[in-house]
Design a protein that fits this description.
This protein is of the alpha/beta class and 660 residues long. It has 25 helices and 15 strands.
């Protein structure tokens, strides 16, 4: 898409463009009269579409405003990190959409994608969707609905093509098949007795007049293009039928004329025939030249025969040769008239398409809910979030290993969970599944958990993974800090935040300081529901400083030189990081691992862990304490060994012994 000229976005010009499109005096009825920037964008978009389509846009009949207060905000980083509809591998089955989308129609699939990227905050709307899903599961009606939807086409797109006069014959045939399926859907929905499903049924309608017209006008399985002809059904127009009969029955006319002329002339070998070069002709051999009637006009001389034409045959030739051309032109005119007639019903067809798309998604939610063992969420006004035995929807489906379900609990007294544990232990999965469960609940879908209760949520932020943006001159750490800054500036006490390994892109002390400061700010100032995963064990001391912070860890155990990940979330900090064991699993050479173990022991022996080691039970290098001056250093700082007497040296040795 090329850049548009600045004047396309000029507010007054754009406003006039929008008013002209909707044929109104103002935009108050659409609720956007006081939104100049939005009107400017809408006007520029209309201008672009008209330029590219080179036609009127009768199917664009209204404009709707959307407020951020209606939805849970998801920024670009969060959509990417949660892998809603895109995976870095390019494989859709590794995304939430890939697992969730069992829509039958293209309309339903697009609707599901929109819902997934725009979760709602309205508990009333969401509870109505839950009610629909519950009714469809209880009655098993979703099976009949999905079976019927297999004969439903993409009438959302077809309606647009009808409006633009670009609909092909098979589009109308698909529309006819779709309208013919509506009565069965009405019957299935009425049996559920669910008020919301009955509203969808009413919105769909049945449209018998359009259906009857298409049944009469269009043949079964029409050709792809109208220019090929044979689209309009026999009996729809008498004049078209006459033209078709004329061109199609020419062979019979030639047979009848040949028999008639043979009888009249007495020439038994006389032929009436046709070729593309000379058209229609009567052929007789030279042996019968004396029997040729006077009204025969010589047309062509051959070696052994003469070819003639008569006034009757010439008139028939003119009529037949033009009949096919006239038939195609007349059929095209009838087809355009048919499109114009259907175009008067565009609005009801668009409402029908929207209802079919929503019904398709709800049936998909019901099928997924029963197949994947999902449960109905509970939305409440009280602040908090409780997940019992939550699972990751995608990981559970693509992994051959049984998934370990875990709980999450947030409340006013429990706002931040600092998550420690080994790499590959499941910290990222645990964090993402929490966000996905919240998101799925807010599109009206059942969730992968035994139970889920959620209070108001306004935004979901994630800071997960490492990526750079070299084209914009941003390093991996710069991208990390930009995403972190966005969270710190825009999160509220109703937000859900996932923070993974903050500060790992810079030096150890810088990274630890940043991670500590970010966690402290989120706990004290923002007070959002935060899952904060880290390998900086020093951060676990925050739990003793602030009541709203709690430590949890992903469990693992060692077996010889190997590590076994238990993937179970337990209270308290992790005992160690298991970094060397994970490196070994990744295939790092044994000599490197052995060298690392030696260095680790040396580092641990040079630092006294004192109170933190006693309190938490782990034996990792404490980076804050490594800056504390060791008493041996202060004792030896002013000693000059060459000036010590033997007695002084012995006394110094006893002092050193006492400090160790």
């Amino acid at each position: 898409m090329c850049r548009r000229a600045p004047w396309h976005f000029e507010p007054e010009s754009a406003r006039q463009q929008v008013l002209k499109q909707f044929n109104t005096l103002d935009l108050k009825g659409f609720g956007c009269d006081n939104l100049p920037a939005a009107i400017a964008a809408a006007g520029a978009l209309l201008h672009y579409i008209k330029d590219t389509q080179q036609s009127a846009l009768p199917h664009i009949q209204g404009i709707r405003t959307e407020s951020s207060d209606d939805t849970i905000l998801l920024d670009a980083a969060s959509r990417r990190n949660l892998e809603l509809d895109f995976h870095p591998s390019g494989q859709l089955q590794y995304t939430v959409l890939g697992v969730l989308d069992r829509s039958i129609t293209a309309m339903g699939s697009r609707c599901l994608r929109r819902w997934l990227n725009r979760p709602l905050r309205s508990h009333d709307v969401l509870n109505k969707r839950y009610s629909c899903v519950d009714s469809l599961i209880e009655s098993k009606a979703y099976r009949d609905i999905q079976a019927t939807l297999r004969s439903v086409g993409d009438i959302e797109r077809i309606s647009s093509r009808i409006a633009l006069k670009s609909a092909r014959p098979r589009d109308l045939w698909v529309l006819r098949q779709t309208l013919a399926a509506l009565p069965d859907l009405h019957k299935t929905l009425s049996a559920t007795e669910n008020p919301q499903l009955l509203c969808l049924s009413e919105q769909m309608g049945e449209h018998p007049k359009i259906l009857t017209l298409l049944q009469v006008a269009i043949i079964d399985n029409p050709p792809v293009l109208i220019r090929d002809g044979g689209v309009i059904a026999p009996g729809y127009n008498a004049e078209l039928d006459d033209l078709r009969n004329l061109s199609q029955n020419a062979d019979q006319f030639l047979i009848d004329m040949e028999n008639r002329e043979r009888a009249a002339t007495g020439i038994s070998t006389l032929k009436v025939n046709y070729n593309r070069v000379h058209g229609y002709y009567i052929e007789a051999s030279h042996l019968h030249s004396e029997k040729i009637p006077a009204h025969y006009q010589r047309k062509q001389t051959l070696k052994g025969a003469e070819r003639y034409i008569t006034e009757e045959l010439k008139a028939f030739e003119d009529k037949v040769l033009s009949a096919k051309e006239k038939s195609l032109a007349f059929e095209k005119a009838l087809y355009e008239a048919l499109l114009n007639h259907i175009a008067y019903s565009l609005e009801v067809l668009q409402h029908c398409a929207a209802a079919l798309a929503e019904l398709d998604v709800l049936a998909t939610f019901a099928e997924r809910g029963e197949t994947l063992n999902l449960s109905q969420p509970t939305l409440v006004a009280k602040t908090g979030l409780q997940i019992e035995r939550g699972r990751h929807l995608v990981v559970e489906q693509v992994s051959d290993i049984p998934f370990v379900a875990n709980d999450v609990c947030f409340s006013n007294q429990r706002r931040m969970l600092i998550i420690t544990g080994p790499n590959m232990g499941g910290k990222s999965t645990y964090m993402r599944q929490t966000a996905l469960i919240v998101l799925l609940a807010h599109i009206g879908c059942y969730v992968p958990a035994k139970s889920f209760t959620c209070g108001p949520i306004d935004k979901i932020f994630t800071r997960i993974g490492a990526s750079d943006d070299l084209a914009s001159g941003r390093s991996t750490f710069m991208v990390e800090m930009s995403e972190t800054a966005n969270i710190l500036h825009n999160a509220t006490s109703k937000s859900l935040i996932l923070m993974d390994e903050i500060g790992r892109g810079t030096s150890t002390f810088d990274g630890l300081s940043l991670a500590w400061a970010c966690a402290d700010h989120l706990a004290k100032e923002t007070k959002a529901f935060t899952l904060f995963a880290t390998h900086y064990f020093e951060l676990t001391t925050l739990a003793s400083e602030q009541k709203t912070i709690h430590n949890v860890h992903l469990d693992a155990m060692e077996h010889g030189d190997k590590i076994i990940f238990l993937h179970a979330v337990k209270d308290g900090p992790a005992s160690q990081s298991y970094g060397l064991q994970v490196a070994a699993l990744a295939g790092v050479p044994h000599c490197v691992i052995d060298n690392a173990k030696t260095k680790l022991r040396h580092l641990e022996d040079t630092v006294t862990l004192e109170k933190q080691a006693d309190a938490s039970g782990f034996n990792q290098l404490d980076l804050f304490l490594s800056n504390v001056e060791h008493p041996v250093i202060s004792l030896l700082e002013d000693i000059k060994p060459d000036e010590l007497s033997p007695k002084q040296a012995l006394e110094l040795l006893y002092k050193l012994k006492a400090l160790t």
